[in-house]
């Protein structure tokens, strides 16, 4: 007999929560959204209508929803970072298994509090690390599990953050300041650090050193002729790659971030958008004259208890965005660029005239977001809730927690200019 669909509630009716919930529209036999919660009446109403949720199951907050008798088997939590733990704790207590958008939270203390609640309740918590589920990274993990390059000795990874993404999220946007967002490596590279912890699943990281700064996006580095707002007083707007006109009106990049300021207008006109960028929209500001204080480049070195040493580099303002990875083991290596969908596996070759053998692998990038990872993540979550075997992408919550602990240790080490120790979860 076919199994009934897993029932779920959506907490936080933004881009990610609704995006995961859309799986139910494509596969109604596997997932059914039965309730929503969001303090914004516009988002709450729009999402409720999308999933045909009756009015009595549209709640203002996760806490209000959790006080009702359990409405579903699972919860999809797409709230903002600082709301993740306060909204997830009551859901776990109420009996829900939770798919929680990344990053988990903004502080190490909250992270360990949530881990303790998962252990106490026995509920299942999966984090929205969609890149684990992308075919590119699954192919790497499969080869590691098959022992194709022996024991990992070192990993090099890099995330190049495009000029337009950096501007929208980390200079003009909501992740631009330490006091109300997250450490930069957590905010932008929690995927990358999670991948490192996933590659090393079962082997804990022990210590981290890190260096970085806000070197370029500061007022004294503003080019001659730069103004305070792109569409008001900037003499170089036409030639500036960070022009708000180019990024948000012509290129139409990162709209969900930029147009939140006028979401209340519904379908904003072109004139509405221009006026917004000219006046109070934070995305209309010059990137060199914002109130941002997070780093624009940072590197971290992580040591694991088996001696493996890994490095990760993050740089903002690049021409081409993308993720590079190079894993070197005792018997071979794997190298690739995610956005190309290409991997190369190399092994030493003792044959006369041969230095090494090389296998080139091309992987499909078709499908939904994050290299095809979004849909596969929801599929695995459904399997997990049902108690069915999940893919190799799904491991214990401790791996996800270690990825975050690496980020916190990197920030601690960078700020304190020292090597920072990583909390041992076995002693918690």
Kindly state the percentage of residues in helix: 25-40%
Distance between the termini: 43 Å
CATH class of the largest domain: Alpha Beta
Largest sheet: 9 strands, mixed
CATH topology of the largest domain: Dihydrodipicolinate Reductase, domain 2
User: In the CATH hierarchy, what is the superfamily of the largest domain?
Assistant: Dihydrodipicolinate Reductase, domain 2
Q: How many H/I helical runs?
A: 14
**Radius of gyration, CA atoms, in whole angstroms:** 22 Å
Mean pLDDT: 95
Strand order of the largest sheet: 14-13-12-11-7-10-9-8-15
In the predicted model, the low-confidence regions spanning at least 5 consecutive residues are none
| Total of domains | 3
Q: Work out the number of β strands.
A: 15
Categorize the overall geometry.
globular
Order of SSEs: EHHEHEHEHEHEHEHHEHHHEEEEEEHHE
Summarize the structure.
The chain has helices spanning 15-21, 23-26, 41-50, 62-67, 84-93, 108-121, 135-145, 163-171, 184-199, 244-250, 255-258, 270-278, 369-386, 397-416, and strands spanning 6-11, 31-37, 58-59, 74-77, 97-100, 125-127, 152-162, 205-213, 297-304, 309-318, 322-329, 333-337, 342-348, 356-362, 420-421.
Which terms would index this structure?
428 residues, alpha/beta, Rossmann fold, Dihydrodipicolinate Reductase, domain 2, nine-stranded mixed β-sheet, six-stranded parallel β-sheet, 14 helices, 15 strands, globular
